[in-house]
Amino acid sequence: MKKMFALMLALAMMLACTAAFAEDDVITLKVAHIGPTTGAAALYGQATRNGAELAAQEINEMGGKYRIEMINEDDEHNVEKAINAYNAALDAGAQMIVGNTTSKPCEAVGAQAMIDRVFMITPSASSEAAIGMDGNGDDSVDNVFQVCFTDPNQGAASAQYIAGHALGKKIAIIYNNADVYSTGIRDTFVKEAAALDLEIVSETTFTDETTDFTVQVADAQNNGAEIVFLPMYYTPASMILQTAAAKEYKPVFFGVDGMDGILDVEGFDTSLAEGVMLLTPFVATGTDEKTVNFVTKYQAAYGVKPIQFAADAYDAVYILVAAAEKAGITAEMTEKGDEGTAEICEALIAAMTEIQVEGLTGTMTWEASGRVTKTPLAATIVNGEYVFEN
Amino acid sequence: MIFLDNLINGISLGSIYAIIALGYTMVYGIAKMLNFAHGDVIMVGAYVAFCGLQYWGLPPVAAILVSMAVCTVLGVTIEGLAYRPLRQAASLAVLITAIGMSYLLQNLALMIWGANPKSFPRTFINSSIINIGQLNVSSATLITILANVVIMVALTLFTAKTKLGKAMRCVSEDRGAAELMGIHVNRTISFTFAIGSALAAIAGVLLCSSYPILQPTTGSMPGIKAFTAAVFGGIGSIPGAMLGGILLGVIEIFGKAYISTELGDAIVFAVLIVVLLVKPSGLLGKPMREKV
């Protein structure tokens, strides 16, 4: 009888244990989104907030091991406010951060989070400094990872896309030599192009004050360039397109994310941009299942079409969950306050370089520096809309 | 062929500089002041024409006429409010006022039309491409060159033959004596501003037809280049502005095409310095004799 009782007790204990384990199985991660949900850059911050929220909702509905509790803080695209928003997020119990949406606030918060040991994944801060890179290969922060390409990396990615899709061998580059964004992309493009056996037949420059692009376009044309690479924002690009049209020169124009927006310039004849390609990870007109699902849900929830930023943030939350699974974040870790947050940070940093995530914006892996590696995707402008080729 | 292509591009760019330079040179010749706001009047002219074409649905010619009317009123108002009270003041005070006016116009445009660049719509000016042999020339290029010649001839005739034109030359030569002879100096200067500003509207439309991006700073760089052209050709001289403008455009394009795109602007200004060292009054400028 005594033995029987002991056995029953043991059984009961075991049951209790499994019950406790089952409860342990659901771990809630407190994720803070920090971005400019008001102010001049509100369009971007609202998109990342919505994208992150949507991903969190999906994850919670799917009912896996981890649940997400979102905290939202507004940084108004301002460095000081970003630090305040970061502190407020930590006070609210945030254990990891999706943010910041824009580069400068991300650089500031990243440096502080580095000291505090808080893990960050930024959907869209694309500067090198956002992940602590100083341009000489030194990495001052190890806890910030990117979903988007770093600015200069777009050059290498563009060259890979052009070579990979055999768009042409003879390439002309027109870039703004007074602008870091433009020269940075140009430098990595030239380096990668050499490695990929692409021939650069013409290379010309301009500055912010340049209005006349006839020489640059004529040089590309006379050297028989099949592709004109335009690492610049859409304003000068629109002038180059107009100049080329006047010269009846029709190469493939290939731009980077700065080209995004060219269709929205008031008065711009969008037929000029027909066939222009640009490196972008996401277009709302994509037809794959993931994109359609995301765009439908997003439109239903927020009433607008998602932009690239929303897709980046949506991916960011899924990446967090994938990294948490890899790192084996435990309930215990999430209950220890600052110390736990630091433990989570170390575990996630270690996990990031080991995971591979298939997101809306491509299949991604990470370097220890925080830089993402993913297949570059390029959209083509067809009938005044961005569409993916494949 | 490439050489010819570059030459045409240079003349086209130069013609735009020349039309803008006419505005600088006329005002300088008659009022003896540098109207640095001229480039910004061009920008306003282009914006008004843009609104006419894009928002009000006007036909291109009507849009240009409206833009000319607005710029004329604007030019005369600027002169009356900001420059006339300073007629007797030191030239430095007038110069700074003109620079202030330039920033005022830019910031007003920023308020009214916003910072987002606008693309100037296509009109008859730039809608077609003319093939001459293997050369593709935009109609904007031809119209710009043509407009330039017409304006220069008209202005030369105007100053030589009409009463008002003669009055302008008199004021230019000796303001005090002109006043004693019964010429209404203030009215003559106002009239000069009216013509200069109407020309600015045309220049704005032509500038944006060739280079279609329109933003509040659109007028500043072409303005400075055109001012350089005016000095290059001899400030105060109408044919000088024309010659200076076209030479400047050709030098800029050739410099970019045959030397380096990075050094294009540097070459332009280097040539200016050399010309001024050799001939301080500019290519067609009258040598100034100091009265002792």
Structure, described:
The complex is a heterodimer of chains A (390) and B (292). With 390 residues, chain A is of the alpha/beta class. Chain A has 2 domains: 27-149 and 288-374, 3-Layer(aba) Sandwich (Rossmann fold), CATH 3.40.50.2300; 153-280, Rossmann fold. Chain A has 12 helices and 15 strands. In chain A, the strands form 3 sheets. A 7-stranded mixed beta sheet of chain A has the order 7-6-8-9-10-14-15, with helices on both faces. Chain A has a 5-stranded parallel beta sheet with strand order 2-1-3-4-5, with helices on both faces. In chain A, helix 3 crosses helix 4 and helix 5 crosses helix 6. Chain A starts with a helix and ends with a strand. Mean pLDDT of chain A is 88; it is low at 17-22. With 292 residues, chain B is mainly alpha-helical. Chain B has a single domain, classed as ABC transporter involved in vitamin B12 uptake, BtuC (Orthogonal Bundle). Chain B contains 11 helices and 4 strands; from the N terminus they run H-H-H-H-E-E-E-H-H-H-H-E-H-H-H. In chain B, the strands form 2 sheets. A two-stranded antiparallel sheet of chain B has the order 1-4. In chain B, strand 2 (129-132) and strand 3 form a beta hairpin. The longest helix of chain B has 30 residues, at 2-31. In chain B, 52% of the residues are buried. Chain A binds chain B through residues 177, 204-207, 209, 211-212, 214-216, 218-219, 222, 235-236, 238-239, 242, 246-248, 265-269, and chain B through 2, 5-6, 9, 12-13, 50, 53-54, 116-122, 126, 129, 136, 138, 140, 207, 210-215, 218, 221-222, 252-253, 256-257, 261-262, 264-265.
Topology:
The complex is a heterodimer of chains A (390) and B (292).
Chain A (H helix, E strand, L loop, with lengths): L1 H23 L2 E9 L6 H21 L3 E9 L4 H13 L4 E4 L3 H14 L2 E4 L21 E3 L6 H12 L5 E7 L3 H16 L3 E8 L7 H9 L4 E4 L3 H13 L5 E4 L21 E3 L9 H14 L5 H20 L3 H4 L2 H16 L4 E3 L2 E5 L5 E3 L3 E5 L2 E4 L2
Parallel strand pairs in A: 1-2, 1-3, 3-4, 4-5, 6-7, 6-8, 8-9, 9-10
Antiparallel strand pairs in A: 10-14, 11-12, 12-13, 14-15
Helix pairs in contact in A: 2-10, 3-4, 5-6, 10-12
Chain B lengths: L1 H30 L6 H17 L5 H24 L7 H23 L4 E2 L9 E4 L2 E4 H23 L1 H11 L1 H6 L4 H26 L2 E2 L5 H14 L4 H22 L4 H15 L14
Antiparallel strand pairs in B: 1-4, 2-3
Helix pairs in contact in B: 1-5, 1-8, 1-9, 1-10, 2-3, 2-4, 2-8, 2-9, 3-8, 5-6, 5-8, 6-8, 9-10, 9-11, 10-11
